[in-house]
From TrEMBL, chain A:
Domain Nucleotidyl transferase: 2-234
Enzyme class: transferase
Species name: Scophthalmus maximus (Turbot)
Protein name: mannose-1-phosphate guanylyltransferase
Domain Mannose-1-phosphate guanyltransferase C-terminal positions: 251-359
Similarity annotation: Belongs to the transferase hexapeptide repeat family.
Source species taxonomy: Eukaryota, Metazoa, Chordata, Craniata, Vertebrata
Pathway: Nucleotide-sugar biosynthesis; GDP-alpha-D-mannose biosynthesis; GDP-alpha-D-mannose from alpha-D-mannose 1-phosphate (GTP route): step 1/1
GO biological process: GDP-mannose biosynthetic process
From TrEMBL, chain B:
InterPro entries in alphabetical order: GMPPB_C (IPR056729), Hexapep_transf_CS (IPR018357), Mannose-1P_guanyltransferase (IPR050486), NTP_transferase_dom (IPR005835), Nucleotide-diphossugar_trans (IPR029044)
Protein encoded by which gene: GMPPA
Location of the Mannose-1-phosphate guanyltransferase C-terminal domain: 285-399
Name of this protein: GDP-mannose pyrophosphorylase Aa
Pathway annotation from the record: Nucleotide-sugar biosynthesis; GDP-alpha-D-mannose biosynthesis; GDP-alpha-D-mannose from alpha-D-mannose 1-phosphate (GTP route): step 1/1
Keywords, comma-separated and alphabetical: GTP-binding, Nucleotide-binding, Nucleotidyltransferase, Transferase
Amino acid sequence: MKALILVGGYGTRLRPLTLSVPKPLVDFCNKPILLHQVEALVKAGVDHVVLAVSYMSELLEREMRVQEQRLGIRISLSHETEPLGTAGPLALARELLDVDNEPFFVLNSDVICDFPFKDLMQFHRNHGQEGTIVVTRVEEPSKYGVVVFEADTGRIHRFVEKPQVFVSNKINSGIYIFNPSMLSRIQLRPTSIEKEIFPVMAEEGQLYTMELQGFWMDIGQPKDFLTGMCMYLQSLRQQAPERLHTGPGFLGNVLVDPTAQIGDNCTIGPNVTIGAGVVVEDGVRIKRCTVMKGARVRSHSWLESCIVGWSSSVGQWVRMENVTVLGEDVIVNDELYLNGANVLPHKSINESVPEPRIIM
Amino acid sequence: MLKAVILIGGPQKGTRFRPLSFEVPKPLFPVAGVPMLQHHIEACAKVPNMKEILLIGFYQPNEELTRFLFNAQQEFKISIRYLQEYSALGTGGGIYHFRDQIVSGSPEAFFVLNADVSSAFPLTEMLSFQKEHGEPNSFVILGTTANRKQSMNYGCIVENEDTHEVLHYVEKPSTFVSDIINCGVYLFNPDIFQHIGSIFQKNQQDMLLEEPTNGWHRAEAIRLEQDIFTALAGQGKLYVYKTLRFWSQIKSAGSAIYASRLYLNQYHKTHPERLASNKEGGPKISGNVYIHPTANIDPTAMLGPNVSIGTGVTIGAGVRVRESIILHGANLQDHCCVLNSIVGWDSTIGKWARVEGTPSDPNPNDPFAKIDSETLFRDGKLTPSITILGCNVSIPSEISRGPLFSRVLHRHLRLRLRPGAAQLQVGTKFSFFIDVNTCFPKLELLFSITLVEDDVLKVHSSVPSRGHCGCSLRPAMSCASVCDPPSDCLCKAVLCLVDFVALRVNKLRGSIQGFFFTSFLAFRLHLQRQQNTQRCSPSDFLLIIQTTHKSSLRIKWSRSLC
């Protein structure tokens, strides 16, 4: 089976992390975002993954070669040289996708959830129509586009963008499965799949929904990245609790790479991810954070809701909170306070940042 | 033989030092590990031929003061006596009132020092200067150089550059007069009393000609600076000795930290044994640090520069203290960080908490810059200042109190209905509006209410309020009251949020979170009788409103009696 992942461009919302590394390769819970999706696809029987990119990265290409070997599948890159919207990339990859008349998956690269690919395929074959969209339930649907569908069959009636009054609390989760015949609907020009393709398919009764069980998050920006991390770690506790780290000084769900070193008298967690080769010195308190590979958190610091970038160094007695994001190789000097600071790579911070701002 | 007089003021003076001066008289507040006054006394006792030190002020005799005097006499082996004024007589009135005491024993000269200054006190040099330059029986003022802008906050001295005579003296002028300022240290001889006497007579004459309003206070309240120096300038009697050595006023708590730094630095020469050093099994020391021998400090803590640790203080593992004064009995738990703050008596700071203030140091690039006399408000915004934790304050773990932009408001309403009688009535309601401009995600207001009964601090309390967040504004609390006050307190203060109105929501700043909103919070502070007594005694209350995020607080008060 085949799958298309809409990787897109520069990942600007996840800066400063995406200034060092293309977004699909940013580590989410100690594994590149893309790999979460690809591995789930492989488990469901996919043997060819197409990445639709608008920005070609050597790093990405190289990494994908490695993964091809490792997973034993084929990974192609489909590069759009001019913007094609959300549907255009499918048309661009037509030759790769429309091969053996098998349905193919499409997913948004920012999405993290308990990927239901096997169930999705089953459901799709059962109703036999052209497309199935996975929907998920959210608390504030008016921030998104909602889907209105028949509760028992799942047949979609219509879509409503950012409704003013409550219409439905199910939104498009960014995960689809289509029959190759649907590709003929898309022309090779900037096309919006939500605005131009889906409404037509729904009208013809060709579009169905499957409701996602479990968590879902679009982790395209730091705040949601951390929220998504909490959800993922919670689901890990239910499915593979042995992967989480326990012991004195560890609270709640904590994921620690085996090569990381944690000092004495620390209190780590809940909801913390510690990457490979990270050094956490004595007396550190970390909650709701991601610490990327090779970073160092020096003694007696206090971190909450932060992302510490690769190889960064956080000084002693530092306090960081409120979605502070450090890019790659950032140095934060001792005894500072960072509140919502967004720090670009290779920067050295000498002064406290009392209010959220970007440090260039 | 010589004498020295130290003017120590009284409880109504030194209001900018509150709330610290509620616990302990300001002259006894520890600076660089010892009471402020001790530095003066030590400097005076060093002068050869010094026979007696007199303290003049209008504090009621209290245990602290008495104990201090006793210990000081033992240590410095010199007679030290406290002469209590019957009311505030001003900087000149006090010494005039006690002139007989001062001249008894026929001293050839006597020093007068203000208690609220920190200085190297070059007293012997002033004596030599007077003998060399001055007319016999001339008086000397100790002066130092300030920068042009700040000089107008002090007494300004115009000197004859050759003879060093004071040609002109103005106290706090509104336009620039001179960059030489009055340090509050003087060298007089008994002739000064003639001059004060004639001013006193003149005041009495003036007073007789007017309607008696304030009674007999006015005549006897004489200000050395405005009344005496201004008149003596240019008469060939008054000289100025300029010093380049350190000098700073101690008016506010922030200036106590700065003064501490100056004295700690002086300890290298005068008291090297008072400075802590890096030892096996001891904490890491950086710069000048004073640690009282009874303090208990974990070896993984890091202290300094400019830190004073008081008696019985406990400092846990991995604690960082910098530019701060930690007072008696405080407990700093593991991994906390205290910067630019004063931690009050018996307070506790929880694990990983951060207590941080903004230093108010003078511009280090200007050699003549002096510490700013801090005004509470500037352009409608509270000025950032040193963070002060009063007595018995408890900071929970992992909390940040007063980072760089903390605003501490001392609000102090004084009602005098009849002199001497109960001043704040039970049932009195005070309403105030807080106009807040603050930034997502949370506004947290910490209210501390302290009631004063008979000039004694009675109630310590703090009422944290969870503020409103971002778009969905909702009242934080419907009613909040202070924690149970001590049982011997007659009054209880109850603070309620009465109303709140949100305006101008969600102005987005920058490309990441930064919501601004303005809201009015209306509170009522209600005093309730706690015990079944007729007497209701709070004479005063102090309301401290602190926020942990940058905000401008504008406060409007109104008062109603029930």
